Amino acid sequence: MRSPQNTSCSMKAETTSSFKKKYFYFQLFLFLLLQLLFTLSLLSYWYLLPQSMQNYCPPKQVAPPVTPVFIILLWTWPFNDLYSLQGLRCLGPWVREANCQITLNRTWYERAHAVIIHHREVSLMPSKQLPPEPRPTGQRWVWLSLESPSHLDNLAAMDGLFNLTMTYRTDSDIFTPYGWLRPRQEQENGSLTQPPFPKTKLVAWVVSNWNEDSTRVKYFRRLQPYLPVDVYGRNHLPLPVKNQQRVLSTYKFYLAFENSQHQDYITEKLWQNALKSWAVPVVYGPPRHNYERFLPPDAFIHVSDFKSPWELATYLMKLDADEKHYLSYFQWRKHLEVVTRPGWFQEFCKACRILLEPPTYRTLPALSKWFS
Asked: Which residue ranges does the record assign to the Fucosyltransferase C-terminal domain (predicted)?
């Protein structure tokens, strides 16, 4: 016979077991109900989707396109004044489908898209110094020159070889000036209308190539008796390059006399030696109207404005004594500032931009006639 105590424990165990079974079936029912509701919701969503979305397949993962490289070979570096091109690549908002890599390595000739050739270094023996022919299909040659026609040898040998021009002339395919003016960024103030350096001397002239038979030296010889001029350069006063701008900035006027007179041939004599030094340029070169394409008319003095060197000398002496009139030659600086070419990289990147434009493959049959 069971004791009352054992009977009571047995009844409790049966009750607990019955409760667990009921709880298990309840959880199973609840799980199945939730699964049913989820399936019905998914079917409803699929039924309401547009047919195009029902057939949607995710796109395959595609690697980003590789930007092609446009190779520009510098066959000759201007004046052999070499700089490192390590890591130089021209990139910018104007580069859409390619970027340019500029190289001096001639072994890349066959795969170069364009070749830039500075005239002076190939003018002695063009047939031996120019790149080999026939050139790779589609390759364009760019003729580069910063010197005037008066100082170029064998110019006619370049006829029929080149596709684009790169010179100081505004009608070049790639315009490469010695300097230019741009709108001033900072606010206008009075200090911009007078030289920042004390002007203690009158007139300076730096001459690297003195030739008594040249027209500029002949004009100077006629001017010299009436006007004191400090002449620097070979066989004249010494002027180290590192001190040049500091010395020239002490002069009120600078003789920006070009070595020859040709369209748009306005060199560093004006941009660097005169304007960067805040000296009023007295110019001898192309006609006044040509200078006015690049400068305000009151930014310089042209020798053609005077009937004789004596009249020019008299005018400069009067300006020296009339500070107000002299300072009127700086009024344009309120709104404009002088920019000179910082180096060749900027010019090569400009060539890159133009070469990347839709190509018009042409040949210049009479380059010598055009440039002369």
From this structure: 198-370
